[in-house]
Write a structure and sequence with these properties.
Layout (H helix, E strand, L loop, with lengths): L2 H18 L5 H9 L3 H33 L1 H21 L3 H14 L3 H11 L5 H26 L6 H20 L21 H4 L8 H14 L1 H14 L3 H52 L3 H6 L1 H5 L4 H10 L7 H29 L12 H22 L5
Length: 401
């Protein structure tokens, strides 16, 4: 493997690890710097997660545009250096506002996947691009698995240990990139930076041009809203309901990430063979609804871990929906469709943490009308039910796609 390709893969993996690495320690860290109980910590956790997602959503196109103007190398290296410094600040943070500022900077510096993909395209022969984009996807998936596992392991050494580890990873990769990364943008192929082209809402404004997939996009959005319950409240839910340690929370999230990877790598093929695309979407919703109901009511930590593979089976929904939607639009609108899907996913990751953590706080705080730590999974269940009904009604009104 070429060193530059390895650097890009590590960069994407570190971006993906950014959230999972900290999830196991966030409940304890927030209470450490801000006081209060777990319910209050969950509310702040939702704000921090949404802040990170907003920054990624807003600055992904901006950073990509800057790389077109000034080059991939400086953008990627500067992002890594600033990311390393940001993790150091968060490791030393003594107030919730410093953590908040850290999430703002962290979201910006982690919005480099588009730039990493552009660099991969620059250095790949046309016939090799798809394969190399697959490597980026694999690295991103690995980050989601490794992040919480490493965060859970390092949590045994204190709430700040994962941040120091992340700082060393980002700093070390910046040094590696300084040595192996060569610039691919020259004076001849650079283009001026334009805020208009860097508009993150660009894909959303084109949704009206895709009339055949409006409802499917809404279904996709509702699925992502429900799915985001896991990174949003799992650590708070695990502590409150089962008294899990940060290590167990990290390992359980790693297990979930691994199960999701297996489902999307191999399980989707079996599902499509058995049920077809439409049947796969329906089956995925059934798995999701069953998993959310079980997690909303479960009182055994061991049973919650056993349910993880069942919850991961819902991961067949996105690729099946994408397959159906891709058949509904023209070949020259496929990029527009993917942009719309990315925007829908990003917006779900912005809204869902606030909704899920507020629900958790409402049903776990002192004086709660009903004590129910699993209430956020009840919200996810309702979202999934609405999503499934919308999908089934499409056939009922004659939409056969």
């Amino acid at each position: 493997m070429r060193p530059a390709v390895l650097f890009v893969m590590i960069t994407v993996m570190i971006d993906a690890m950014g959230i999972g690495l900290m999830v196991p320690v966030m409940p304890d860290l927030i209470r450490e710097v801000n006081g209060g109980g777990l319910s209050e910590a969950a509310l702040w956790g939702g704000v921090l997660a949404t802040t990170f997602a907003v920054m990624q959503f807003l600055f992904g196109p901006v950073i990509g545009g800057l790389s077109d103007r000034f080059g991939r190398r400086p953008v990627l290296l500067i992002s890594l250096v600033v990311m390393a410094a940001d993790y150091v600040v968060m490791a030393l943070a003594g107030s919730i506002w410093l953590l908040f500022a850290g999430r703002i900077v962290g979201g910006i510096t982690a919005a480099t996947q588009a730039t990493a993909s552009a660099y991969m395209a620059d250095i790949s022969a046309p016939g090799q691009r798809t394969k190399n984009f697959g490597l980026i996807g694999a690295a991103f998936g690995a980050g989601f698995v490794i992040g919480p596992l490493l965060g859970g392991l390092l949590a045994e050494y204190g709430t700040r240990a994962p941040f120091w580890a992340a700082a060393m990873l980002a700093g070390g990769n910046a040094v590696f990139g300084w040595v192996v990364l060569k610039e691919t943008i020259t004076a001849e192929n650079s283009r001026p930076f334009s805020l208009r082209r860097a508009n993150p809402f660009g894909a959303l404004k084109h949704l009206g041009k895709l009339p055949g997939v409006h409802k499917l996009l809404l279904i996709y959005f509702l699925y992502m809203m429900a799915f985001a319950v896991y990174p949003s409240v799992w650590s708070y839910f695990g502590q409150e309901r089962f008294e899990w340690t940060p290590a167990i929370i990290g390992y359980s999230l790693g297990l979930f990430g691994l199960a999701m990877a297996l489902v999307q790598a191999g399980g989707i093929r079996l599902a499509l063979r058995w049920f077809g695309e439409r049947g796969t979407v329906v089956a995925g919703h059934v798995f999701a609804i069953c998993a959310y109901f079980a997690l909303a009511t479960v009182t055994s930590g061991a049973l919650a871990l056993i349910l993880t593979p069942l919850a991961a089976l819902a991961g067949v929904i996105p690729p099946a929906l994408q397959g159906i939607m891709s058949q509904r639009v023209a070949d020259n609108a496929q990029g527009e469709l993917q942009g719309a899907l990315t925007s829908a996913s990003s917006l779900a990751m912005i809204i869902s943490p606030l909704v899920m953590t507020a629900t958790f706080a409402t049903f776990t705080q002192i004086g709660a009308p009903v004590y129910m730590p699993g209430a956020p999974f009840g919200v996810a269940l309702l979202l999934s039910l609405v999503s499934l009904i919308l999908f089934l009604r499409r056939r009922a009104v004659g939409d056969v796609a």
